[in-house]
Automatic annotation (TrEMBL):
Stored Gene3D superfamilies: Tetratricopeptide repeat domain (1.25.40.10)
Short name of one Pfam family: TPR_19
SUPFAM superfamilies given in the database record: TPR-like
Record-given protein name: Uncharacterized protein
Domain of life the protein comes from: Bacteria
Length: 223
């Protein structure tokens, strides 16, 4: 927060400390985000002084690898501004538009469904310089491998559905729902041997874990 300071003679403020840290980090890339409520700026002149000081800090201007963001929130109080600044920082680093892609949009593009999804995450990984994988499961959301596998099955794209759910099982080998979905895919593909095998495997895992899906597996094996 812009207003944080040490009220001691000749003491450094938080802004001084951050500016020095940025200046000594060399070529490392990063962002610095400050936020303040307009209520603080109005009620205490020292906050406004710190804001102006921050805007003109030479250390920040000299650093090409660091982006500086300053937010002054209207009609907000002190701690509300802190929460908004934290959320803004995450959005700046990891924009929702990039990190929460619409899976149905990816699989409706030309090409193979799984390849489209994985290519998206490979590009994302490259831009962030660390591995980013597709979301295997996400509660109450269509943007996951499990949900998009179901969608592909409904669209009668069974081969692609099989690939997607198989990848989900690579990430989460004991995922009960994925075993059941894959059995439905094999049923649609008229592959009774593979279907029986995946159901028996799922039942074995469910029994070992005393999972509520035991009855579902037993019922499916009767078909």
């Amino acid at each position: 927060m812009i207003g944080m300071r040490l009220d001691l003679p000749n003491a450094k403020t938080l802004i001084d400390e951050v500016a020095e840290a940025v200046a000594t980090r060399g070529k490392e890339k990063g962002i610095v985000v400050f936020g303040e409520a307009d209520d603080d700026l109005i009620s205490d002149k020292r906050y406004d002084n710190n804001l102006n000081k921050l805007k003109h800090t030479v250390a920040f201007k000299a650093q090409q690898n660091h982006a500086l963001y300053i937010h002054a929130y209207k009609n907000e109080r002190h701690y509300d501004a802190l929460i908004k600044t934290l959320l803004s920082s995450f959005e700046t680093l990891y924009p929702e538009a990039l990190w929460a892609p619409k899976y149905r949009s990816l699989v409706t593009q030309p090409g193979n469904a799984l390849e489209n999804i994985e290519q998206y995450y490979q590009d994302l990984s490259k831009s962030y310089s660390f591995p980013v994988l597709p979301t295997p499961e996400r509660w109450n959301s269509v943007n996951s491998l499990r949900s998009i596998g179901r969608y592909l099955l409904r669209e009668e794209r069974t081969d692609e559905a099989e690939q997607v759910i198989s990848r989900l099982l690579e990430y989460m080998p004991q995922h009960m729902g994925a075993h059941l979905i894959l059995s439905d895919i094999y049923l649609a593909q008229n592959k009774p041997t593979q279907r029986k095998k995946i159901l028996e495997k799922g039942l074995q895992i469910a029994t070992k874990r005393q999972h509520p899906s035991i009855a579902q597996f037993k019922e499916a094996l009767k078909l």
